[in-house]
Amino acid sequence: MSQTVQEIPARVASAEALRVDDLAVSFAVHGGQVHAVRSVSFHVRAGQTLVLLGESGSGKSVTARAIMRLHGRRAKVTGRVELSGREVLALSDPDVRALRGSRIALVPQDPTAALDPLRRVGAQITEVLLLHRAAPDKKAAQARTRELLRAVGIPDPERAYRSFPHEMSGGMRQRVVIAMGISCDPDVIIADEPTTALDVTVQAQILDLFAELQGRLNTALLMVTHDVHVAADVADLVAVMYAGRIVETGPAADVLKTPRHPYTQALLDALPTPQTARGELHAIAGSPPVAGQEFPGCAFADRCTHALDTCRTAEPRLVEVAPGRRAACPVLNPTEAP
Amino acid sequence: MTLYLLKRLGSAIPILIGVSIVVFITIKIIPGDPVASLLGPTSSPQARAELTARLGLDQPLPIQYLSWGAHLFQGDLGDSIAKHVPVLSLVLDAFGNTLVLATFAAVVAFVLGILLGGVSALRRGRVSAAISNAISLFSISVPQYSIGLLLIIYLATGAGLFPTAGMYDPINGGGWGDLFLHLVLPGVTAALVPAGIIARMFRSCVIDVMSMDFIDAMRSRGLSELRILKHAFHNTLPTLMTIAGLQLGYLLGGVIFVETVFSWPGLGLLVYQSITQRDLPVIQAGVIVSALAFVVINVVVDVLQAAIDPRVRA
């Protein structure tokens, strides 16, 4: 497959855009190393959307940032991250910089904080285009910026171009940040909680925009969210994270309909529905683990209603439980042979 | 922007009126009857009453203030008691000399402060940052007169590199080179405290800006660290200018110690001499000119800030 890379167009529908193998991230702190993420593996194809789903502290944002090598020197990142065939973790710093914003783009959580407050929106997008030579000259970059602003559904691109970030609404700023993300036609877009800072009504518009752009550009999308509804809305694939590990992964429709891990079940049960009576929300008992907390067995065992004694001593492995589906719970997914 | 400028200039007027009221009240509070001191202890009560009426001192205070203010507004600040010349020309000459010294010291302080603060913020945890911190702390804490005297002893009288005092050489002085040589020691001495303050403020400002989300967002877009630093510096400018304005205002107020130690013929030295000679009109004028300079600098800083930060204009 990889031998024929030169003959095939840059982005084929089924090409693997991002592959993460056995990723681990740990941070140096006073007392030693804190393991934030361990043995995380997944892959996303062009045109596909993978949602990393989990509570805050589950390691999903750490994973996303590690893929772009945005953790500083305090972090130790091991494993493999393959971006369109290039091994990101082995690249030199300048080579990684050349990939960031051009081959892999990040749409951050808070668009307001992600923009330079002192510069006009248009200039900030133009800067990225010129930096990655996605436009031959300044004039072309400016024209392309206006095009991008129109493409992300900003009603008056000319005005937006000349606006300062504080002069726009949160939804418009998010569109600006998305325009910046797609500006160099990346292979992979990482969206870190892209709707969390927005009103519910605007959230749906932004998710629709992601879907529309992805359909048009055939980009692989890795979306990080704590919101099951967002996952259900956009995901082709879902990877549920807990305490720095993936506990269940598979096609979104299957995972969210018939979860095979108690944590996924609990997460879905905790969702309020219009039928939920007052005071009857199913909170998950106990509290989520602190980032980096160590467990001898299953990290979820203490909060799990299915837990057996063995769960607290033996660490469950992520195993295939159905075609294309993997889960890390031997209790819900007993193997036939002992 | 024009509207903002007008608004800002308008708001400076009440401040200036406030300053003039404070100065006026200070004159009134200071003990001693000006009529008695003018006529002497043996004067008749009748002569005193006559002079009191002629000077308008029998009028109610608000009327006295208005008449004093009207003179002030026309640039009439009275005559110096000790030197018998109009106060205005005396103070303006001295202020011009202070302006030269303050501008030189301000440039030294900004360059030094930004370098020290920048190193200390960007190289945190390293030896270079610790050295920068030590230098800025030292420059804030050491008294100006002692540093000034040490510089005179070692670099002026000792090594003979610089003149010990004054602004120009009295024999064959004049010209830019001569002025510069005279400027170095007092300029550096006056710059030390502001440099230390600017360094410490700039340090915390750079740390703040560098920890903002948009810096990280720029990194995720592939910008080089150098380019990110450039944008970060841009974002420190509003804070930097506020500090710089305050420090420049303080320097323009006349650096009394420095001007006295180096006999620099500026506002500080003039006010110092006037205090020892109880030359009240000159002291008043000195205070008013310093206050005016402070207000003007602050207006300029606000306007520059608005030019840099669009959120201030809104």
TrEMBL record, chain A:
GO terms for molecular function: ATP binding; ATP hydrolysis activity. SMART domains: AAA. InterPro entries: AAA+_ATPase (IPR003593), ABC_Ni/Peptide_Import (IPR050388), ABC_transporter-like_ATP-bd (IPR003439), ABC_transporter-like_CS (IPR017871), Oligopep_ABC_C (IPR013563), P-loop_NTPase (IPR027417). One of its GO terms (cellular component) is plasma membrane. It is a peripheral membrane protein. Keywords: ATP-binding, Cell membrane, Membrane, Nucleotide-binding, Transport. The keyword Cell membrane applies. Residues 18-268 form the ABC transporter domain. The keyword Methyltransferase does not apply. Belongs to the ABC transporter superfamily. NCBIfam families: oligo_HPY. This is Peptide ABC transporter ATP-binding protein. It comes from Paractinoplanes ferrugineus.
